[in-house]
From TrEMBL:
It comes from Zobellia amurskyensis. One of its GO terms (cellular component) is cytosol. Its EC number is 2.7.2.4. SUPFAM superfamilies: ACT-like, Carbamate kinase-like. Residues 2-277 form the Aspartate/glutamate/uridylate kinase domain. GO terms for molecular function: aspartate kinase activity; ATP binding. Belongs to the aspartokinase family. It comes from the Bacteria. This is Aspartokinase. Pathway: Amino-acid biosynthesis; L-threonine biosynthesis; L-threonine from L-aspartate: step 1/5; Amino-acid biosynthesis; L-lysine biosynthesis via DAP pathway; (S)-tetrahydrodipicolinate from L-aspartate: step 1/4; Amino-acid biosynthesis; L-methionine biosynthesis via de novo pathway; L-homoserine from L-aspartate: step 1/3.
């Protein structure tokens, strides 16, 4: 039993969908469950729809119609018969979104977000499943919301592993080629929940864990796990093998190829993770598994953009110690700030956070009542695993370094 995951870039257009079919033909598709993300930038487009719903309803129809038109163009490229049932199925899914927005009374942005945004995955998998059957590969569409059960902390849920394990192991037929959605789950009231952006990797790991899969393969538009993101670094190198421990370290610091939560369930059952190219599916890619370290051992660069650096100082020169630090972390938690770096002295505390839920202003107002606060928005956090002097120089050159933290294996720099 294998689990494959295809991201949005792999199904961004009709040619992408056809290529997924080609990958399945080359690799085989028996005893396989395929997890698929929303097509292209659909998640961003659905987010824009939610934002328009709350802030500018006059822009709502136009925002949503653009998404419908994008998928309709893909359908017309894939299916020559305009009367094919897939057209009405996709229209029905988009009608559900419009219906929800018409009757919804909840003012909770996160709840509405989860009910709307997840339709990107429902549509993409419906299209892929229909196309597979159209070209003679029998596949079975399943709704992942019936299997992955979570709490109701919308946009930031926790998986109920006991319920999920029971449903997945009991009701998914491992002998078939199954097509399902990444990113999604449901709560006890069967409302849709989401696992966080890039959560499709996590979906694949959850299914692999519950099904005792032989492996998970994440199909990307890069040859595997690279030592740096090619969008930001001109010279990159393929990592052939990475241990679970090293991969978890890289994911923790923000490596974008592997979702941070993905590795833990795989490591528990020693299920290998392959990261391969959907452009060249026969290439070896990267294997993450049981072992020691990283091969080849080269500096690995990770960057997180648009971070916030805050320096807090006590107003009365009192120490910032356990009780005040505990209170600070509660505030970060309550405002859904992901803490990426901390550094403290007797009377000051510096922290680099990800303002992913846009609650910085509220947090700053609370902090300023107790501390002297200096903050920098739009900074970048660079992390180098297995750093050397050349790697350090390459980042420091031309950047204003606001904060540096160095350990035995890891160097972190916050720069403007």
């Amino acid at each position: 039993m294998r689990v494959f995951k295809f991201g949005g870039a792999s199904v961004k257009d009709a040619d992408g969908v056809k290529n997924v079919v080609n990958v399945l033909k080359q690799t085989g598709h028996d005893n396989t469950i395929v997890v698929v993300s929303a097509m292209g930038k659909t998640t961003n487009a659905m987010e824009a729809t939610v934002n328009a719903y709350f802030s500018d309803k006059s822009a709502l129809v136009a925002a949503f119609q653009e998404t419908i038109a994008y998928h309709d163009a893909i359908l017309k490229d894939l299916f020559s018969n305009s009367n094919h049932e897939i057209f009405s199925k996709v229209k029905g899914l988009f009608d559900e979104v419009q219906g929800f927005l018409a009757w919804n009374k909840s003012p909770n942005y996160n709840f509405v977000y989860d009910q709307v945004v997840g339709y990107g995955e429902l549509v993409s998998t419906t299209i892929l499943n229909a196309y597979l059957n159209e070209v003679g590969i029998k596949s079975n569409w399943i709704d992942i919301r019936d299997f992955i059960k979570t709490n109701d902390s919308y946009r930031d849920v926790s998986v109920n592993w006991e319920k999920t394990q029971e449903r997945v192991s009991k009701d998914i037929d491992k002998s078939k080629l199954n097509i399902t959605q990444g990113f999604l789950g449901s709560d006890d009231n069967n409302f849709t929940t989401t696992l966080g952006r890039e959560g499709s990797d996590y979906t694949a790991a959850i299914l692999a864990y519950c099904l005792n899969a032989d492996s998970v393969t994440i199909w990307k538009d890069v040859p595997g796990v690279l030592n740096a993101d090619p969008r930001y670094f001109s010279e990159t190198q393929l990592l052939n093998n990475i241990s679970y421990r090293e991969a978890i370290e890289l994911a923790f610091y923000g490596a974008s190829v592997i979702h941070p939560k993905t590795l833990q369930p795989l490591q528990q059952k020693e299920i290998p993770l392959h990261v391969k190219s959907f452009i060249n599916p026969k290439d070896p890619g990267t294997t993450v598994g049981k072992g020691v370290g990283i091969e080849p051992k080269v500096p690995c660069f990770i960057v997180k953009k648009n971070q916030v650096l805050m320096k807090l100082s006590s107003l009365d020169f009192s120490f910032i110690v356990e009780d005040s630090i505990s209170e600070l972390f509660k505030l970060f938690h309550d405002h859904k700030m992901k803490v990426d770096l901390i550094q403290n002295s007797a009377i000051s505390f510096s922290v680099c956070v990800d303002n992913r839920f846009g609650r910085l202003e509220d947090l700053l107002n609370l902090l300023k009542s107790r501390f002297k606060v200096v903050h920098h928005e739009g900074v970048s956090l660079y992390t180098i695993r297995h750093f050397d002097e050349k790697a350090i120089e390459s980042l420091q050159n031309g950047h204003e370094v606001l904060l540096e933290q160095r350990g035995k294996e890891t160097l972190q720099l916050v720069v403007k």
